[in-house]
Design a protein that fits this description.
Strand order of the largest sheet: 5-4-3-6-8-7
Number of domains: 1
Oligomer: single chain
CATH class: Alpha Beta
Number of strands: 8
Distance between the termini: 19 Å
Largest sheet: 6 strands, mixed
């Protein structure tokens, strides 16, 4: 809890972030976060289609914040290549976290979990995404996790707040209120490189087995997990029963 003016009120970190972000630009939000919370912070990056925006904001305005990349072992080859390009050109210090069990071993023991319905996908998420992210937070001693989620990504994110308490972790979204046009303008104005699969019809990016290009009349949501869901397990709503972190 953070105490405000003597004798008036006490607010949580979540309430403080939500109130403060309303009147700030994204760069100012990054500066403020680091000034307020310092070593409590970590940024996760998927190195997906729009990841360069948050990475650029951090390197320019709060470079001390560590960057965590969850490498599931099932990313597109183009994502690995794009990540290496951004890491080198941005001069990023990226901390890579991988599952404790390799992709080959998983398939030998459990088969292709992503083809095994809801239970298989849940187990896949726990092994490949949630456990590595939990490990990263624990090793950094961080309890405030910054992410590039935006409301316009999907219906599951449309009503999110700038900050959310999710079990022991606070999730913070500095560009939550950005429209797609703002993202495009930021790429253009800052001459940021784009993910190579964007030009092939992908509107969202995840593992190769659960992400497909958007076909005519389709949406980004329909291109993830065959349209059955959008979230992979890391960014579930805090009220979701299987939220882990």
């Amino acid at each position: 809890m953070i105490k405000m003016a003597e004798g008036i009120q006490t607010v949580t970190d979540v309430e403080k972030v939500n109130a403060t972000f309303m009147e700030m630009s994204a760069p100012d939000r990054m500066i403020w976060l680091h000034e307020q919370y310092g070593s409590r912070l970590v940024l996760s990056s998927s190195f997906g289609l729009q990841a360069a925006v948050m990475l650029d904001l951090v390197r320019k305005h709060a470079p001390q914040i560590p960057v965590v990349w969850i490498d599931t072992g099932y990313l597109f080859a183009e994502t690995y290549q794009y990540a290496e390009h951004l890491i080198e050109s941005f001069g990023l210090n990226v901390n890579v976290y991988q599952p404790k069990i390799s992709a080959a071993r998983q398939e030998a023991l459990y088969g292709k979990l992503w083809e095994q319905g809801e239970d298989g996908n849940a187990r896949y998420g726990l092994i490949n995404k949630i456990e590595p992210m939990n490990r990263a937070l624990n090793e950094f001693g961080a309890d405030i996790w910054i992410s590039g989620l935006r409301r316009s990504h999907s219906s599951s994110r449309a009503h999110r707040h700038f900050a959310e308490q999710q079990k022991t972790t606070i999730k913070v979204y500095p560009i939550l209120d950005w429209a797609d046009a703002q993202v495009s303008a930021y790429f253009y104005d800052n001459n940021l490189p784009k993910h190579p699969l964007e030009s092939e019809g992908y509107q969202t990016m995840g593992d190769w087995h659960s992400t497909s290009p958007v076909v005519d009349g389709g949406s980004a949501e329909s291109s993830r997990f065959s349209g059955d869901k959008y979230e992979c397990g890391l960014h579930l709503d805090s009220d979701t029963p299987d939220f882990q972190i």
